[in-house]
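Need the bound structure for serine, inputs here:
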Amino acid sequence: MSRKLIIGSSGQIGTELVIKLREICGKDNVVAADIKQPIDEVFYGGPYEEINVLDKERIKDVVLKYKVEEVYILAALLSATAEKKPDLAWKLNMEGLFNVLELAKEKVIKKIFWPSSIAVFGPTTPSKNTPQHTIMEPTTVYGISKLAGERWCEYFFNKYDIDIRSIRYPGLISYKSSPGGGTTDYAIEIFHHAIKHGNYVCFLEKNRALPMMYMDDAIRATIELMEADKEKISIRSSYNVGGISFTPFEITQEIKKTLPNFEISYSPDFRNEIAKSWPSHINDQVARKDWGWRPNIDLDQMCQTMLKQLKTDFV
Ligand code: SER
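Answer from helper R.:
Posting the output first, comments after.
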């Protein structure tokens, strides 16, 4: 069992990925790392190291200390925060990736997972059934950094044969840890507000559809991609993966099935402009063909789970 290092283990994806990988691989084989302490389940559930992804020597020390073979780089600034801090977003999103790519080139590590996003697409991309290979002219800082990162991943694979794998995540819905400054965060906030206050002011317009996915599916996609045989991986930039697609209005209708008095109003802000530049529905046939990707969780199941879990948390 190859030992793994998860950089960004306090974040939305990192939290759940560490927990799941420790279940599968054993707790001592999954080292969690972040600049801020993760939730107790991650912190006390196995090895944890403080790492700043911008500090290459520190990453190398931890890799050597634990004899790590695989690194997952989940530390990043998401779309909405990146628009407010463009310099930091570019630095963090690119240098973090480069530090790990360089360590792989130096043969210190063997395999990398790096997350891309639907943000690599832009207003000129076909927005429905968006293909794997298509026009990509992102208009956000986050999208530009992810597209550049994809190109570098493919370059390092072609030039140095580095086994790097990636997914273009849609908006991810989860309850264990908070999302960090994305455009798709409304689809999580809405559940918290529905339960706590019975109403929600949405920062996207009523009919703005976006690709989304429940976290369990996203974690499974990540693990399945990383476990797939090397010869099955035909995409070394990043794979489209589809889950569910819905609008703020549609998710509201679903929530109302459980909470009939829930009310939503709309006050679109700059995040609606970001959302307008992204696709509404992703075509993932290449991921399906190459490594057998299939989403499991639909809108109804996702809403039921979120409401049930968050209600328990608030009681
Ligand atoms: N969830 C991300 C965001 O909204 C998209 O990858 O920024």
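Comments: The chain has a mean pLDDT of 96. The domain at 172-212+243-314 is CATH 3.90.25 (UDP-galactose 4-epimerase; domain 1).
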